[in-house]
Amino acid sequence: MKATINGLEVGFEASDTILDVARRNGIHIPTLCELHDINHSPATCRVCLVEVHQVEGAEPSYLTACDTAMGEGWRIMTRTPVVREKRRVQMEMTLADHHQDCATCSRTGDCELLDAADSVGLQRVRFQRRPLATTALDIPENAAIIYDQTRCIRCLRCVTVCREIQTVDAFEVVGRGAKAGVRIRNADSAGESACVACGQCVMVCPTGALTERDQTQQVVDYLADPDIITVFQIAPAIRVGFGEEFGLPAGTNVEGQVVTALHRIGADMVLDTSFAADLVIMEEGNEVLQRLRKGEGPVMTSCCPGWVSFAEKNYPEILPHLSTSRSPQQCLGSLVKSYLPKKMGVRADKIRMVSIMPCTAKKEEAAREEFCHDGIKDVDVVLTIREFARLLRHEGVDLKALPATPFDSPHLAEYTGAGVIFGTSGGVMEAAIRTLYYAVNGKELGQIEVEAVRGSEHLRSASIDVGGDVGQVRVAICHSLKAARSLVESVKAGESEYDFIEVMACPGGCIHGGGHLRGKHRYFKQVEQRRDALYSADRQKQVRQSHHNVQVQKLYEEYLEHPLSHRSHELLHTHYRDRKHPACADIQAIWQELDAHRTTEEA
Amino acid sequence: MTKPLFGFWDGQKIDMRDSGEPDRQNAAPILTGLEEFDSANPIKAFIADRGFLVFDEQTDLAAAFHQYMSQAAQESCGKCTPCRVGTQQISDLLAKVHQTQNLRSELADIVAMAEHMAETSLCGLGQSSGRGLAAAIRHFPDAFSMDEAADGLQHSYTYVTAPCIEACPAKLDVPAYIDCLKDGKPDHALGVVLDKYPMAASCGRVCVRFCESACRRANADGAVGIKMLKRFVADQVSEGGREIILKKPQAQAAAGNKRVAIVGAGPAGVTCAYHLLLSGFKVDVFEAGQSAGGMALVGIPSYRLPKDVLKAETEDVIRSLGGMIYYGQKLGKDYSVEALVKQGYDAVFLGFGASRGTLLGVDNEAPGLSGYAAGVDFLLDVHNHVEHGKKMALQGEVVVVGGGNVAMDCVRSALRMGASKVHLIYRRTREDMPADHEEIDAAEHEGVEFHFLSNPSHLIIENDKAVGVELLQMRQTERDARGRVGVEAVPGSEHVLRCDLVIAAIGQQMDRDVLCAEDDITTDRWGCIQVDADTLQTSRDKVFAGGDCVLGPLTLIHAMDHGAKAATSIRDYLLKGRSQVSPEARMQKLLAKNRLLRSDKPTITPIRIDRARVPELDAMERVKNFEEVEQGISKNAAYREAERCLRCYRVYSMVTRYPLAADTSASPQSSQHAV
Question: B314 and B441: one domain?
């Protein structure tokens, strides 16, 4: 089929939209709400208007390119004065009810709405803004993710990512007309919401409507307090993603610069979560081995808090299969508040543990009551990578200009190649296999890189021969909660059998965590470069197996005795709870809500 | 005054302001039925999606459009920019028109936004609600400069609807429940349905779907699967382990000491009882059978509507709302209407249905003849067999005569009961069959043999038992003046189809034994109860009637609508002393009379998204039992199907001198707007 765009003849298929055809032919049409990477075109912003001549000589129509199927023989014009003016009017209307205090917005300097305004050539806004009350959308106090309706353009990308990529379906659209917005279902009622704080909604939000709870000021307070010892930990994925914020190529390893930057802003000690990842392998690996020998499979990893919440809220029946090992963040937090004070001769209540994570769910994990003892939290504050960038901006630190310095702590900072690949899907499994093999056979795995568990498919499986009395271990790796759901369903239905399963809630794993840097008009960008960088960090390490981490060995000798010891259980293991709440709806309340917008009393 | 003075309609400017009265009288009426709208309450203007009409010089247009646009602003889903912002901003600007110094520039902004809204909005609401206003300002700007209505008397009644809503007998707000589902609020979606009737999961399984026929998507890639979505929300709420709480309402003094008797626990009676219970009345339901559901219970086999689904939405709902159900109580045998009134019931609702099978009208047939049954009686036997284990022997070949859903229920049930072969006899063609085409397809897949253009002439009797039927071949006649094709018998085409059972499934009629003379209820020549079409009041004070006993055998949704209407009338009657016609009902009549919602098609074909397919049990397996054939759709499929709704909302405003509700003091919450 044939049509023309701006005089250029173009071929198309019946299912193509005007926007599809234009893009394929390199013709730019400004868009805003649409997000191709997640196959999302809600057609709500109405910015992508084009002039359509269906019949020559007849009046043209002005249609949105994203949701109009291209027609045979149509003549499309994307740059006539009329259509450009219509796009500007559309943008004027969008801005008429948008909270334009950009200075206070979390996306200041990085906003897709302003880009769109720029790309339509907006020069004035005629329509007066009607101030919006945000009271309808209460946010629970400890929520990791905050929604500001006044900055929402109703693109509903968040709803789509939550439904389609994660199958969590935590959002509902509420309110009418100017008051329309999104809300986490049951967030404020006794029944818990389905939200697991994975933060993928934040990753797709084009404006500052969805963002993490900003805790940078709390960290500045710690840093400024001379009585407080601030201890930071950085997650494996931070080092390979953070450089992008400062203009470095994707995948540049900035580990040393991050350490320097943290010391520059006043950190007393910088530790590495990768150390705790090695420790987790020692605990979890031995746990897996024990359960394998008893035939109590499958064991599922528990280092991802989004996944743990998902399991608790959707599949409480599988909780006994989750490894009881705490996540690396919480293991390190717990040691920083118990082992470290002894080593350093300081009081635990003088220490503040701050984690820098590519994750929003870690904020909720740190707030779990089981990780707080006598009012002392194991991890005091979790900053996303975005907040960390903000913090450095507040402090005037340009990462790119900094020299690299190594971790200098004699405790809890050294890591192996196995620990650092925790940041990618498949990494936990690979690290575990390296140590499992050693534990079973008393010798190292010949081929240290376990290609069988690497890859980008959302659901992968392999059978690994670890030899000895264990033999073949059937493993599965999944990332994205959609993949996790289908894996759990198939295990429950008896359709597949595994011994050991790695689950990461975010597509790609932590290198695309909900606390990572956001893209513009892109989702899931630069994940490959970050993953390659992690594998490269592993290759560059002399020691690539968790059981050879000298500081981990020292920790066992001095304090924990051996994996799964009594003290390990106390400090490094946890329990889970059934958080599945069948909601109960009161029909009268529903009717009241449904009627609310219809009862109009005009004088 | 029902001829417009000026206005704009379907692209045509109308201006009779300078013409004399005779000219106006000669102008073709654009809308009919306005004169009977309210004789004592002059109509000043009417605003619609297709334009606006002004009938009275003393009309404050700015105020009228302000009212119209504020309602649109509240109906706007708020997702697309032009409608969300446009309706709000325009309504704000119109509110200020009377105070504004620079009217011209204000009006220019309004026109710009209204036209932009009409041209670029995502759904029907935004596309349609700016048109009239833009035309009004473009063609009659001076009309906006007048001061507030000189006589100070102007009221607007604004009604928001869509083609699917108006097509539904119960006027269910279909786009609203689809929106709620799409918006991730299944409980609210169900709430929209429960606002009309309690039998959501049942209706989501067996409704005949007038809404889908009216769907504007029907001519593109197929109507939205409205029924499957209704079933999805109803099932999701009940199966998802969640609960919708239907509480017994707080006793209200006014209603609480009034008692209402409901005769018949079918869809009409149950719906009537449900609404009355929710309003706080005491309700007793009398049912001749042993379970609730009426024709939905005995007439619809469980492979289409499982009995537990039905029970949960009838008996269980009535009981949980505090209503009483008395089974085995047959009107005309165990009690009479007269007796109910004497017992002190403050009102009575008759909803006893039309449950007697109609005879074929051929030689040799007689009720009670062995080897011969009426469709409804056969289905009742099947029901009693499947649900209560009552003995029923069926073997050999079965012939069913008829072309409606009851005939389909009979053939498919006969297969499941073990018939070796089932024939369907229908006098016209397959295309003429009134049954749902899905039902026809399903019967065909299950192995029913269809004989179209075939009509029985008499039953073959041997040893006092029907053993076959003589059939005549029919042929289609030429189209008559009204364009209809008739059928006539082909002479000499008689042939015999032998069988073990003949079932006449050509319709039901009234059971004339239920009402007696002293009940004093007027019926027509078919035995149907005569009622006031608006209020459903019968000839007898305190007594209301609805459903099949008024309409003759019709549909589930008609019966539920009648039940709900009767409940409103009874409530008004008991609390205000008389039943009345709601402004909403008046608007619905006007829209129907002028076919205002039927004539438009989407101007741009929507991107093709195929209608979701309802999963079914395998035909060869399912005929062995009465398991439910159609399965629910998945959540993903439901979300996707919901996305197909074009939200063809339209806003209509009737501007009158006095408020439209007959009783102005009554309901402060109705959307009456004094301006």
Answer: no
Q: What is the reported pLDDT for A366?
A: 96
Each residue's pLDDT tens digit, B165-209: 999 999 999 999 999 999 999 999 999 999 999 999 999 999 999
- The pTM is what? 0.92
A246 min Cα distance to partner chain B (Å): 35
In this structure, of A189-193, B98-102, B369-373, the range with the lowest mean pLDDT score is A189-193
Closest chain B residue by Cα to residue A588 = B246
Print the SS3 string covering A568-584.
HHHHHECCCCCCCCCCE
B-chain residues within 8 Å CB-CB of A177? 73-78, 84, 87-88
Q: Which of the pair, B100 or B398, is modelled with greater confidence?
A: B398
Answer yes or no: do B370 and B499 share one domain: yes
CA B525 to each of CA A97, A231, B95, B522, B530: distance values in angstroms, whole numbers, following the listed order? 63, 92, 56, 10, 10
Same-domain pairing of B150 and B31: yes
Confidence of residue B251 (pLDDT cuts 50, 70, 90): low
Domains identified in chain B, total number: 3
Per CB-CB distance under 8 Å, the chain B contacts of A153 are 81
Count Cβ atoms below 10 Å from residue A552 Cβ, excluding itself: 24
CA distance A97 to A127: 9
Closest approach of A444 to chain B, Cα-based (Å):
47
Cα gap B123→B84, rounded to integer Å: 11
* Inside any domain, residue B186: no
B505 and B515 within one domain: no
The alpha-carbon gap from B78 to the nearest alpha carbon of chain A, in Å, equals: 4
Asked whether residue B347 is domain-assigned, the answer is yes
**Inter-chain residue contact A97 with B88, CB threshold 8 Å:** yes
| Partner residue opposite B246 with nearest CB, options A90, A582, A587 | A587
Residue A304, both tokens: 């991802």
Asked whether the beta carbons of residue A594 and residue B195 sit closer than 8 angstroms, the reply is yes
Mean of pLDDT over chain A: 92
Task: Give yes or no for a contact between B74 and A177, defined as CB atoms under 8 angstroms apart.
Answer: yes
What domains appear along chain A, each with residue ranges and CATH number? 2-119 (3.10.20.740), 145-213 (3.30.70.20), 216-572 (3.40.50.1780)
> Are B538 and B653 part of one and the same domain?
no
In this prediction, does ipTM exceed 0.85? yes
Q: Is B596 inside any structural domain?
A: no
- pLDDT at B508 exceeding the cut of 90: no
Domain span at residue B519 reads 253-356+510-582
Residues B399 and B486 in one domain: yes
Q: Does B328 map to a domain? A: yes
The residues of A that are catalytic are 284, 287, 303, 323, 362, 365, 370, 510
Cβ separation B607–A126 shorter than 8 A: no
Mutate to test the interface with B, among A100, A130, A600 (most CBs of B within 10 A): A600
> What separation in angstroms does the CA of B415 have from each of A441, B58, B423, B506?
66, 69, 10, 19
Question: Are B427 and B399 contained in the same domain?
Answer: yes
CA distance A270 to B62: 68
For testing contact with chain A, the best of B60, B85, B109, B651 (most A CBs within 10 A): B85
User: H/E/C letters for each residue in A493-523?
Assistant: CCCCCCCEEEEECCCCCHHHCCCCCCCCCCC
* Least confident piece of the model among A21-25, B178-182, B389-393: B389-393
Task: Give the tokens for residue A267.
Answer: 């950190």
Boundary of a domain, candidates B477, B509, B541: B509
Contacts of B116 in chain A (CB under 8 A): 86, 89-90, 93
Burial (CB count within 10 angstroms: exposed 0-12, middle 13-18, buried 19+), residue A26: exposed
- Local confidence band at A603 (pLDDT 50, 70, 90 cut-offs): very low
Last residue of a domain, one of B494, B509, B524: B509
The CATH number linked to B557 is: 3.50.50.60
For residue B88, the chain A residues in CB contact (below 8 A) are 97, 130, 177-178
Are B368 and B348 part of one and the same domain? Answer: no
Nearest by CB to residue A86, choosing from B73, B87, B120, is B120
